Amino acid sequence: MPEQLTRRTALGAFGAVSLGALLAACGGSDDPVTSTDVTTSDGATATVAPQSGSAPALDDLFDNAASCTLTPEETEGPYYFDVDAIRSDIREDRAGTDLRVAVRVQDAVACAPIANAVVDIWHCDAGGIYSGFESASTGGAGGSGPTDDDTFLRGVQVTDTRGIVEFLTIYPGWYRGRTVHIHAKVHVDSATALTTQMYFDEAVTDAVYANDPYAEHTGRDTFNDSDGIFDAGLVMTLAEDRGGYLGVMTFGVDAA
Predict the structure, then answer these.
(1) Cα–Cα distance measured from residue 253 to residue 188, given in angstroms and rounded to the nearest whole number
(2) Do residues 118 and 11 lie in contact, with contact meaning Cβ atoms separated by under 8 Å?
(3) Checking phi first, is residue 221 left (phi over 0); if not, alpha (psi -120 to 50) or beta?
(4) Whose CA is closest to 10, among 48, 153, 18?
(5) Would you put residue 63 in left (φ > 0), alpha (ψ -120 to 50) or beta?
(6) Secondary structure of residue 240 in the 3-state scheme
(7) Distance in angstroms (rounded) separating the CA atoms of residues 196 and 79
(8) Residues of the chain with pLDDT under 70
């Protein structure tokens, strides 16, 4: 049975799969959901998804995204857990408008890309539900950790030589008390260098939410201008893409 490459492998000594093998196997593909087999150090096989399906057009969008400054830290929130899965397609069975998320990680001091950084993202589905926390997401009892085994809309990728990772997900829904957002963490040299959130232009959100399944979830109560955590500097640069959207964001971290 194939050995599954995990986030802990990427953050550790890479004894199971070398990071060089991971990057060689996953780079340069135009398809963000294709998986590849690589050979581990003990001769086994690991199946990994590409960490970046970045097309050259992304560079133009990144030129319009913030760069060479430290990205603000934001709260982790109550719904994080280490899903421990390196994959680019995190949709699983969730319905919604496709969203490609491309993140560039930079050293904010040197203004240079950081290769081999590990990026976690997680967010709710179109109905405002977080995997692992369905009970708490719907107003039920929660706890200090996950209460179910779901892992949808969570995943991890390793940056390529341009400092870029790419995920295929769906446009997030909303839940009471928060504007629309995606959570993210960046890990550099096995340490967490950034915990933050990404936000959306309200005009784009309005267009997405006019359609199902988002239109079935009514009563949204919090918007960018009424969210106490929202930071306008963390709004993603968005473009229409393949019937959905492409969102890009540059994360500047202190890599020292």
Answers:
(1) 9
(2) yes
(3) alpha
(4) 18
(5) alpha
(6) strand
(7) 13
(8) 1-57, 64, 66, 135-147
Give the Cα separation of 139 and 155 in Å (integer).
Answer: 25
> Which one, of 107, 156, 164, 163, lies nearest residue 9 by Cα?
156
Q: What is the pLDDT of residues 148-189, one digit of tens each?
A: 788 999 999 999 999 999 999 999 999 999 999 999 999 998
Q: DSSP label at 230?
A: -
CB atoms within 10 A of CB 148: 11
Query: What is the C-alpha to C-alpha distance for residues 131 and 133, in angstroms, rounded to an integer?
Result: 5
In angstroms, the CA 69 to CA 77 distance is: 24
Q: Report which of 49, 52, 23 is spatially closest to residue 36, judged by C-alpha positions.
A: 49
Residue (of 75, 60, 65, 64) closest to 105 by Cα position: 65
Nearest to 157 by CA among 3, 5, 2, 1: 5
Secondary structure class of 4 (helix, strand, coil): strand
* pTM, rounded to two decimals: 0.79
